[in-house]
TrEMBL record:
PANTHER family membership: CYTOCHROME C OXIDASE SUBUNIT II (PTHR42838), NITROUS-OXIDE REDUCTASE (PTHR42838:SF2)
Subcellular location, record wording: Periplasm
Single GO MF annotation: nitrous-oxide reductase activity
Any one GO CC term of the record: membrane
Region Disordered, residue ranges: 1-22
Keyword Oxidoreductase: yes
UniProt cofactor(s): Ca(2+); Cu cation
Name of the protein this chain belongs to: Nitrous-oxide reductase
GO biological process: denitrification pathway
Length: 643
């Protein structure tokens, strides 16, 4: 399953220069036939004729992977000139836009948007049968709330297979296939409402965890409506290959953010509602809440031994404090008291500490993971509690022993030394080595390769909720501000490099080196479920009021100039983009039937609709694919029914 990557021939060799493109377009303009020759051949022809422009290339000397220790920003290329490629991908959650955004780092250029929980017409997402059914079968909601994008790992390193995200709104998890940068599975978690964290068990992505924030009755079928003590919150484990739930763990309190240890044993969550309350004032009443530490092999044993209750088809293991499974020598869930209402929790790259951010407390709590097995009082596993500033929310890491914590209220990122925090008195600020103002109110932050065992320590993105005066005003709904900060220089400290406005509203990001991802640039038909429709395979088959139209599409036409059906027919159109040249995307739009199906080269899609409106309907290609793009259209004739 694990992909291998050859860092020497990454995306560079698949790009082509703007000069060459212009050449092709000019040629197609002169002679429409010219445009039907695969673009690849053109490029070769163009190159042979000496028309080679500057090929896309990795930005100058951006990479500081070979460096030892800190590197001055003067030795780092922070600009990515036109035609150059970024060193990193950043995957940003799109919040309640229901999508994921892909940025290049350090340019902060938006490279792509990946729709997940909402339809998106330009990608044809939710318009063809397969994606429409996926959205319907996962609840039929029209939106979701994406907070946490996490890339799968093998041996604690990003492996480029998948990106997983949560849907806080409807209690779901989704998987994005990073070969094609598209959502390929969504699971509606049966016993969870408000899935907040989304993380995987490391080192090898054994499970994806949905982290339940909202407490509700279980099952939520009308019982215990106004009986909050009876409400529950669960951690849900999902198999990353099948995307089926494997088990749930019932907890006391609720769960907010989460992260995995590095050795397959521990998984950590924060709980801000140990009060099990339903109002804000009650949820902040107690001086302490929890970090929950889940002993995953112990939970697996409980499932194996049948120590569970099956609810909605999922084995639910009781991990509450009073559970018999928590009574003995090896409790399945440890509840570690930390200061009131913690928020983020992350594990350090070496796997030794879980660090929880205080939110209402000005400290982070450094939990020594090895001590969880040794201490009687779990608070003795907290080995450091540095004072950082107001509103600490999330913490990430570099490769030099530093942690970086966002301070929501102070509008700062604070850099601190983890070992120094362990050595100093709780509540002291001795561990702090640097602070930088950000603009404004950072929620998450992230650093390059931060969730792996091997962070790079060069870039940090601060995902600021507020942008105030940083951009031209665009009305009362403000963009967020994703700020790029260089963190590679320990002497000079953190340096702000870029402001980037963003559509509401990203929460978190994962920054992945380009060598860890290997996207296809043309579909491999073997990866798709539908058979391709080739040049000789077009046809219109009719059987009992069902019509199957098979047609290819290519520059500059569809496989049928005219498709005739009868009013009331159920029509399925299978359409294949038979181009093999990169970058030539077409779509099949049938506007009055609310259809727009995208096909990239070698992609096959299918769409079904009822032809219930007699008349002439122009089907057209909505991607500007060639000089004769406007001519790429066919008629759908819907004959009125004869009585
Ligand atoms: S949360 S701003 Cu949804 Cu990750 Cu902390
Ligand atoms: Cu195909 Cu426009
Ligand atoms: Ca609380």
């Amino acid at each position: 399953m694990t992909q291998t990557h050859d860092s020497d021939d990454g995306p560079t060799d698949t790009t082509h220069s703007t000069d060459v493109d212009l050449e092709i377009d000019a040629a197609s303009e002169r002679d429409p036939l010219f445009a039907r020759i695969p673009r690849r051949d053109f490029m070769k022809a163009g190159m042979a004729a000496g028309a080679v422009g500057a090929m896309g290339s990795l930005a100058g000397c951006t990479s500081i992977l070979d460096r030892d220790g800190s590197v001055s920003i003067d030795d780092v290329d922070t600009d990515v000139a036109p035609g150059e490629l970024d060193e990193y991908y950043a995957f940003l959650s799109g919040g309640h836009s229901g999508e994921v955004r892909v940025y290049g780092v350090p340019s902060m250029r938006q490279l792509m948007r990946i729709p997940v929980f909402s339809k998106e017409s330009a990608r044809g997402y939710g318009y063809d049968d397969e994606t429409r059914e996926m959205l319907e079968e996962s609840g039929g909601y029209t939106w979701g709330d994406v907070h946490h994008p996490r890339v799968s790992q093998t041996d604690n390193e990003y492996d480029g297979r998948w990106l997983f995200v949560n849907d806080k709104a409807n209690g779901r998890l989704a998987r994005i296939d990073l070969t094609y940068f598209e959502t390929d599975a969504i699971v509606d978690l049966p016993n969870q409402q408000g899935t907040h964290g989304a993380c995987a068990l490391m080192p090898d992505t054994k499970y994806i965890f949905g982290v339940g924030e909202f407490r509700v009755p279980l099952p939520n079928d009308g019982r215990n409506l106004d009986d909050p003590e009876e409400y529950t919150s669960v951690l849900s484990a999902v198999d990353p290959e099948t995307m089926n739930p494997v088990f749930d763990v019932l907890v006391d309190g609720n769960m907010d953010n989460a992260d995995s240890g590095k050795d397959g044993r521990w998984f950590f969550g924060t709980c801000y509602n140990s009060e099990e309350a339903v109002t804000e004032s009650e949820m902040t009443r107690s001086d302490t809440d929890y970090v929950q530490a889940f002993d995953i092999p112990a939970i697996e044993d409980a499932v194996e031994n049948g120590d569970y209750e099956e609810i909605d088809g999922v084995p639910v293991v009781d991990g509450t404090k009073d559970s018999s499974l928590n009574g003995g020598d090896s409790p399945i869930v440890h509840y570690i008291d930390v200061p009131s209402n913690p928020h983020g929790v992350t594990v350090t790259p070496d796997g030794s500490y879980a660090i929880a951010s205080g939110k209402l407390d000005n400290t982070c709590s450094v939990i020594d993971i090895a001590r969880l097995d040794e201490v009687d009082d779990l608070t003795d596993a907290i080995v450091g509690q540095p004072e950082l500033g107001m509103g600490p929310l999330h913490t990430r890491y570099d490769d030099r022993g530093h942690a970086y914590t966002s301070l929501f209220i102070d509008s700062q990122v604070v850099k601190w030394d983890i070992e120094r925090a362990v050595d100093s008195e709780p509540g002291s600020d001795e561990a702090v080595v640097d602070r930088i103002d950000v603009h404004y109110s950072p929620g998450h932050l992230n650093t390059s390769q931060s969730y792996t065992a091997d962070p790079r320590g060069d870039w940090l993105i601060s995902l600021n909720k507020h942008s105030m005066d940083r951009f031209l005003p665009v009305g009362p709904t403000f963009p967020v501000n994703d700020q790029l900060i260089y963190i590679g220089d320990d002497e000079e400290g953190m340096q702000l490099v870029k402001d980037t406005p963003g559509h509401p509203e990203p929460h978190d990001a994962t920054i992945v080196h380009r060598d860890n991802i290997e996207p296809e640039t043309v579909y491999d038909p073997d990866d798709l479920e539908l058979d391709q429709i080739g040049l000789d395979e077009t046809g219109i088959e009719r059987e009992d009021g069902r019509v199957h139209v098979k047609m290819y599409n290519q520059r500059n036409h569809f496989g049928h100039d005219t498709v005739t059906v009868e009013e009331g027919d159920e029509v399925t159109i299978t359409t294949t983009n038979i181009e093999s040249a990169e970058n030539i995307v077409h779509s099949l739009a049938i506007p009055q039937y609310d259809i727009n199906v995208k096909t990239a080269p070698q992609e096959t899609r299918e769409v079904t609709f009822t032809a219930d409106k007699p008349g002439v309907y122009w089907m057209y290609c909505a991607y500007f694919c060639s000089a004769l793009h406007l001519e790429m259209r066919s008629r759908l004739l819907v004959e009125p029914k004869e009585d």
